[in-house]
Amino acid sequence: MSNIHSSNFKIGMLGGGQLGRMTLQEAYNLNLHIDVLDPSENAPCKTLANQFVVGDFKDYQTVLNFGKDKNVLTIEFEDVNSDALADLEKMGVKVFPQSRVLKIIQDKGLQKEFYKQHQIPSSPFELINNLSEIKNSKLDFPIFQKLRTSGYDGYGVQKLNSKNELDKAFDKPSVLESAVNLNKELSVIVARNEQGECKHFPLVELEFNPTANMVEFLFSPANVSAEIESQAYELAHKVIEKLDMVGILAVEMFLDQSGNLMVNEIAPRAHNSGHQSIEGNYTSQFGQHLRSILSLPLGDTNIILPSVMVNLLGEKGANGEAVYEGMDEILKIPGVYPHLYGKEMVKPFRKMGHITIVHKEMAEAKKIAQKVKQIIKAKAK
């Protein structure tokens, strides 16, 4: 690969949200020049990108025009035009993750069939085309219905407790999944470069906001047995290697009450379950992503200190210009690191930032995280 640090080496990124923003912050350390395409003229990446282009990353021609002069093209959001990426690959542009990988991951039905084909454990499922087919499902209720495409961050997911609740089901192509008798939700971030070098971050544990169905707390490392931890790494490596993927991959997992580990979903990009790595690990997930797509040696993923991440979501009823109540107070606490995502307007449950708490004792980090959660609020002016 030519001189990646030169302004003549063009890196493109589809998506200009908070994941892109944190990737750009890491890119400055290596003097990388990254152009960003995003449909929002006020996207978080706007002021940090080498060049910021307003355009629809779902539109074939827009993506083709943006990518054709790039050396390497990547994503921070998977719902992009993968057909354009496939044609850019034919033109000689390196696209990571590869378009064929994106086509699998963009369709939750294809994801589930991929797991089945490669003997990767996941919850029992059925594929349906419309609402009427749910009535004939052989799965036991409760079940989860997930739209096959365009769902993210809890959107496009509906829990159905019985056939009496079909009035709230989606009438679109979907995956039906058996509900898991859940013990914990876990995640492994794993990265792979073109040389086939593969490294994982230590297993993390997730707690979800029951209303928004988004991660509320993250604990690194996860409190599980060494056996479960080892199985999780083996699963994550198997997924990225069977995909033959280059880039960073979040592998979200369920641990059920019987001790069985199964893959829930995967995301071929930096992920909410890796944000703590900025302060908590020797290499951040954003740095690792850049290393993987640029054929650089992968970094040390070991934990520096145990960490807890708190997602900063917009308060209920908050609509307007964002203000952050309690920022002065949390900045006085040692080991507390806020990250704001540069979103001017706040909405209920919108991801406005995150706060990482590092401490040599996990129990103390959790106490501080609970305190921080009560203090910091994303409200409207």
Description:
- The protein is of the alpha+beta class.
- It folds into three domains: 11-95, Rossmann fold; 124-178, Dna Ligase, domain 1 (2-Layer Sandwich); 182-380, ATP-grasp fold, B domain (D-amino Acid Aminotransferase, Chain A, domain 1).
- 24% of the residues lie in helices and 30% in strands.
- The chain has ten helices and 21 strands.
- Strands 10, 11, 12, 13, 14, 15, 16, 18 and 20 form a nine-stranded antiparallel beta sheet that branches. Strands 3-2-1-4-5 form a five-stranded parallel beta sheet, sandwiched between helices.
- The longest helix has 18 residues, at 226-243.
In terms of topology, how is this protein built?
Elements: E1 11-14, H1 18-27, E2 34-38, E3 51-54, H2 60-67, E4 72-75, H3 82-90, E5 94-95, H4 99-105, H5 108-117, E6 125-128, E7 143-147, E8 157-160, E9 174-178, E10 182-192, E11 198-200, E12 204-209, E13 214-220, H6 226-243, E14 247-256, E15 261-267, H7 277-280, H8 285-293, E16 307-313, E17 320-325, H9 327-330, E18 336-340, E19 345-346, E20 351-358, H10 362-375, E21 377-380
Parallel strand pairs: 1-2, 1-4, 2-3, 4-5
Antiparallel strand pairs: 6-9, 7-8, 7-9, 10-11, 10-12, 10-14, 12-13, 13-16, 14-15, 16-20, 17-19, 17-21, 18-20
Helix pairs in contact: 1-8, 2-3, 3-4
- Rg calc: 20 Å
CATH architecture name of the largest domain: 2-Layer Sandwich
The average pLDDT is 95
When the domains are counted, the total is 3
